[in-house]
Amino acid sequence: MEAPNHQWRKIKNVMMQITTLVCAILVITPLCLLFYHLLSSGISALNWDFFTKLPKPVGETGGGIANALVGTFVLLGIAAMVGVPIGVLGGIYLAEYGASWLNRWIRFGADVLNGVPSITWGMVVYALVVVPMKGFSAWAGGIVLGMMMIPLIMRTAEEVLRLVPNGYREASLALGISKWRTILQIVVRTALKGIVTGVLLALARVAGETAPLLFTAFGNRYWNHNLSDPIAAVPLQIFNYAISPYEDWHRQAWAGALVLLLVITLINVSVRVLTRDRFSQSTH
Amino acid sequence: MANALNPSATASQPPAAMTRRKLGDRAFEYLTLLMALAVFILIILIGYELAHGSTLSLKKFGWHFLVSSDWDPVSEEFGALPFIFGTLVSSAIALIIAVPLSIASAVFLTELAPRWMRQPLTIFIELLAAVPSVILGLWGIFVMVPWLRTHLFPWLKSSLGFLPLFKGPIYGVSMLAGGIILAIMIIPIITSVSREIIRSVPGLQREAAYALGATRWEVTRIAVLSYAKKGLFGAVILGLGRALGETMAVTMVIGNRPEIAASLFAPGYTLASVVANEFTEATTDIYLHALFELGLVLLGVTVLVNALAQLLLKTLGGPEIKSQH
Question: Distance of alpha carbon B220 from its chain centroid, rounded?
Fold first, then answer.
């Protein structure tokens, strides 16, 4: 009686292991396919013109997305100006001051904010910035990305500031240095690498956002000479090219997607490699 | 504070420097507090702006907005039902596909995979979570939808066509395509959160089950999965929150037609994608306000779902567990 039962349990064990393996394979297959298609369709459209030229008028082949590449960097620059100070200072409050009941609520708020759909961010900034300024602008696009970065940066800044040993703070305070200067000159400086990492990850995350830019930055087929005017961005360009009926634009959409994903992946991977020691220490 | 309690410390310093220091400390603390409170200011601001932006529509349609399925900008009749339907159905499809796959993968990554395989697979799945949705949408339009149209959908129709879900003409772009692309988007999120949760199950749980003679799978089922149930549920709800608010990838493959159809092969429309498509075309005030109200509905649902997810995840892996290490 016992032997067949034991046998069955062993078979079941192997079956379930195979099932989970199959599931894992199913999970990574679409992603492998995505990378494969990006490479095979994107690389053929990558050339010097793609990085240096403006988009060509409808119907002409060639041209590039130089304005969108610059536009994305401009938008990220404005976003950093909005998101980094608020996020880092908020993180300092969570790590260095805050009563624990308040901290719990702020953390909860940040996590909820993180889940606000990107399209609603776009609508809010449309009402806040675009309507008063009477037009789509680079400012609006940068501000919306910056707002989206705030909760991300706040959480990572808090996490790395907490890793700074308390002895550092005590040593500085014992020398008679005031608390705020201790925080800025000792604690923040010690954790600077981690804070920069958090900022880079947040930038990588918003760099690919499209939905909030649709009615803030709006997109532009030419160079942007004034931050109060609409500006092009790589994700917007990919979207507009992808839904267009032109073969050559599809090709460029793939190339743009390849470039964007390479940059985002590069940031993610390098940050992971740089901080591997710290994270493995903090989790054990 | 400390100085007030300790008069000898204040005595050793000139009073002017003292007050300046105290002032600096106070000012810095309040500055950082203000920045931390920005989180709440933003939440209130989002709610206020969306409600303010939709006053006309709120006033004109009232609760009827949520149950009406008219969407006619010309005659200025607006109802959210087809979009609510599309958002719910596409997210439900995504969860049906993503939940078993993600949790099984998380189990594989933490419990069953050979050690050398775990780290690279984990990093790969986390990289997938960083793929922008517009890139996934691009892939969806040009690779996934044509494949679905010529392979998967005809097969589904011939084998399950007796169900109303799989009847009707096949266009490719459809509710089902939207659900599948959403599943691909939320699988990395659910997998990596589930993985964290399964990892936080104490080793003693597993050892106890092994000591009773359980096989590997039995250990996973009895000691790990049932212990982590609540946290895994939280991971799923977190994925649901993402799916509900996802815009670009869905917009590109769901077909964008505001109708309620029984067939999953028929095109659909979601709250997020109608806003993305029609916002800049909204010519009349009432049209714009109706779109804002769709945003308000979307915000309400996602905030509730995300808050629920956070509460579920907090109960596990909270400070109590961390303090044990």
Answer: 27
Q: What is the complex's ipTM, to 2 decimals?
A: 0.90
Domain range summary for chain A, segments of one domain joined by +: 2-45, 48-283
H/E stretch holding B71 reads: strand B71-72
B156-215 pLDDT, tens digit per residue, is 999 998 888 898 889 999 999 999 999 999 999 999 999 999 999 999 989 999 999 898
Backbone angles phi, psi at A115, to 5 degrees: -95, 0
Q: What dotted CATH number matches A48-283?
A: 1.10.3720.10
pLDDT above 70: percentage of residues in chain B:
91
In this model, does residue B11 exceed pLDDT 60? no
Q: State whether A20 and B31 contact (CB < 8 Å).
A: no
DSSP reduced 3-state for B79: coil
Q: Where are the alpha helices (DSSP H) in chain B?
A: 2-5, 7-11, 15-53, 55-61, 64-67, 81-107, 115-129, 133-139, 145-147, 153-160, 175-199, 203-211, 216-218, 229-245, 248-253, 271-278, 285-315, 319-322
pLDDT tens per residue across span B125-160 = 888 888 999 999 999 999 999 999 999 999 999 999
At position B258, the amino acid (one-letter code) is: P
Answer yes or no: do A85 and B276 touch at CB < 8 A: no
Q: Which of B28, B39, B128 to mutate to test the interface with A (most CBs of A within 10 A)?
A: B39
